[in-house]
Each structure stands twice: as structure tokens, then as C-alpha cells.
Write a structure and sequence with these properties.
- The strands form two sheets. The protein has a two-stranded antiparallel sheet with strand order 1-2. A two-stranded antiparallel ribbon has the order 3-4.
- It is built from four helices and four strands; from the N terminus they run H-H-E-E-H-E-H-E.
- The chain starts with a helix and ends in a 13-residue tail after the last strand.
- The protein has a domain at about 45-100.
- The protein is mainly α and about 140 residues long.
- Residues about 30-35 have low confidence and may be disordered.
Length: about 140
């Protein structure tokens, strides 16, 4: 790896850590369930049923936007020549490009003391229920 790619990898890791911290803060602030949190038996069965239905729809090419081409990338985040259709991306768990927008509001008090961001606010948009993967 070159120095430039090492710096990019370190920067990416820092960004991912920040995103995970931000999301965990949103979970604690808004009381959302985190992955692995206790769920009722019926919730677990419902989720398993939805996952099974999604896998079937992906295999049959009937999921929402199954034929849409998605920009896939290799292990170095370089776009592949043709991309893949969405159903292949989901079935094969391929790396692909996605867009996330995180909106933060930091008070003047927290800007002066970034170690303790107690008054930081994060705007969280709920995922659409019409998504074929992890709706809501």
C-alpha cells in the first residue's frame, strides 16, 4: 500500500467510526432498537418471514427495482465496469455505492468543547417502508 492509500484507509476508518458513533447516539436519543437488542418471539418470527420472502423475491427477480443497475465496487472501492442488477447485489452481498446524509447541529457550547458533545442534535430520517431491504 502506498502512503496515500494508507492515509485514505485511515481516513475511511475514522469516518466509519464517526458514523457508528453518530448512529449509536441517535439510537440512544430516539430510543430506537439496536441490532441484537431483545425482541419478542413474534417480532423475530416476523423478521425471519420477511427475510425469507425477500430472498425468494430476489431469486425470482420480483423484488422492488430488482432489475435496476447498481454501481458496484471492488475491494479498493473502484467501480466495476458494468455494475450489477440490484437483485444480484442483494443475493451475493456485493459491495456497492450508497449515499447517506447525516445532518448534525452543534451548539456553540459544544463547538467550544468538542470532547463532550452533550447538546449535539442529529437529524435521522426513517427508512421508507417501500424498500425491499430493511424497510422502516
Amino acid at each position: 500500500m502506498t502512503t496515500e492509500s494508507n492515509a485514505m484507509a485511515a481516513s475511511t476508518k475514522m469516518y466509519i467510526s464517526w458514523v457508528l458513533f453518530t448512529l449509536s447516539a441517535a439510537v440512544s436519543v430516539y430510543g430506537m432498537k439496536q441490532a441484537g437488542s431483545p425482541r419478542s418471539r413474534s417480532q423475530q418470527q416476523s423478521q425471519q418471514s420477511q427475510q425469507s420472502a425477500l430472498q425468494k423475491a430476489l431469486r425470482e427477480g420480483t423484488s422492488r427495482d430488482a432489475g435496476e443497475r447498481v454501481c458496484t465496487v471492488d475491494e479498493h472501492n473502484r467501480p466495476t465496469a458494468e455494475g450489477h442488477v440490484r437483485s444480484e447485489v442483494r443475493l451475493q452481498n456485493l459491495w456497492h455505492r450508497a449515499t447517506y446524509i447525516i445532518v448534525r447541529h452543534v451548539t456553540e457550547e459544544d463547538a467550544a468543547n468538542p470532547i463532550r458533545p452533550e447538546h449535539e442534535h442529529i437529524l435521522v430520517q426513517r427508512r421508507s417502508m417501500s424498500k425491499d431491504y430493511c424497510p422502516g
